[in-house]
Design a protein that fits this description.
Blueprint: H1 2-13, E1 23-29, E2 32-37, E3 39-48, H2 54-65, E4 81-86, E5 89-95, E6 113-119, E7 122-128, H3 134-150, E8 160-163, E9 176-181
Antiparallel strand pairs: 1-2, 2-7, 3-5, 3-6, 4-5, 4-8, 7-9, 8-9
């Protein structure tokens, strides 16, 4: 018991706070939120669906913000890290919240990183804690999908997963979301 209390206390003291994308809360209905997001510059890496590997994708993007760019410049870490499927690819996104344009970003030393403007717009979101296993992701995706269906709201993108916390965060303290663009 003493070890658990120490772990919780340590996790709370050493918890990082990262800059996050701004949104306007349009509606809250239980665990579901409807949000309006701005447009953001992102760094993105993609792999074929059959090669899904979040760890390698994270390392690719992290190397860029830790100086793997033409200026050897460190770029502030932001949250969340967003993942989603798009046609035949699996994508991971880091938000470049200090950039107003793609041209503000130093070129990457890694050809697998692209910069884009990411227009989130209006999104439906459900939050959850613990781990982001496929089973949990599908459970919350199904809950969000049922809500949209019940309220006659049409999704206009694939479902995305937002992960906000570092891997050492205690599972019950983690913050995750499933979100989808809507009309």
């Amino acid at each position: 018991m003493k070890l658990i209390i120490i772990m919780i206390f340590t996790s709370m003291i050493f918890s990082e706070t990262y800059k996050e994308p701004n949104f306007t809360l349009l509606k809250k209905d239980g665990s579901i939120e409807i949000r309006q997001y701005e447009k953001y510059v992102i760094a993105k890496t993609s792999i074929p669906l059959d090669g899904k590997d979040d760890n390698n994708m994270f390392r690719t993007l992290a190397s860029y913000i830790f100086g793997g760019n033409e200026n050897n410049e460190s770029i502030p870490m932001t949250a969340p890290v967003t993942t989603y499927q798009d046609n035949d690819k699996y994508n991971m996104v880091f938000y470049m919240l200090d950039a107003d344009s793609v041209t503000d970003m130093p070129a990457s030393n890694n050809k697998d990183i692209v910069f884009e403007e990411f227009e989130m717009g209006k999104c439906a979101v459900i939050s959850f804690s613990w781990f982001t296993t496929d089973t949990r992701i599908n459970h919350y995706k199904d809950k969000l999908s049922a809500y949209l269906n019940d309220n006659k709201i049409t999704p206009k993108s694939t479902y995305m997963v937002n992960r906000y916390d570092p891997p050492w965060r205690l599972p019950f303290m983690r913050r995750n979301e499933i979100l989808v663009k809507i009309n």
